[in-house]
Amino acid sequence: MNARMRQLIYIGLPVVIVTVTVLLFNMGGILKRSFGADDDVAGRLNQLLSLTQQRDWDRAHTTIDDVSQAWQRVRGRIHITSTTDEIELFDLELAGLRGAVDTRDEVQANIAVRRLIALWEDIGV
After folding, report:
1. Cβ–Cβ under 8 Å, residues 31 and 124
2. Can you list the positions of beta strands (E) in 82-124?
3. Which DSSP symbol is given to 82?
4. Positive or negative CA dihedral for 70, 98, 79, 119?
């Protein structure tokens, strides 16, 4: 290997690695976006908010299952750009929401949905 090629490897390779890493860690907004109808967490949460305000508990319970499935799809993608605490907090709030809907507690359900929406807006940013 000549000196020019060695210099290119010593300088070029770290620059490429740092660039790829920076791009990867700044993709939180892109990774969080919905790539289909089955992973639209924000849309499902907004739908759930209106259902709990209307006290349509049966449809709200079904929508929680949809939110959980969408969250599981997105969770793996955003794990790169989010902290473990953010992901665990979202899981805990989702469990609290499920409990509020199971007990048909409108106030707690609305609080839980609004907290999940706020968490969703902040996660991965």
Report:
1. yes
2. none
3. S
4. positive
User: Three-state SS for 105?
Assistant: coil
Tell me how far apart the 2 most distant CA atoms of the chain are, in Å. 74
Cα gap 111→17, rounded to integer Å: 43
Q: Which tokens is 42 given? A: 């924000």
Check pLDDT > 70 for residue 30.
Answer: no
pLDDT band at 7 (very low <50, low <70, confident <90, very high): confident
For residue 10, the number of C-alpha atoms closer than 13 Å in the C-beta half-sphere is: 7
Contact 116, 45 (CB under 8 A): yes
Q: Element (H or E) spanning 23, and its range?
A: helix 3-25
Owner of token pair 């449809």: 59
Q: Which of 110, 91, 87 minimizes the C-alpha distance to 100?
A: 110
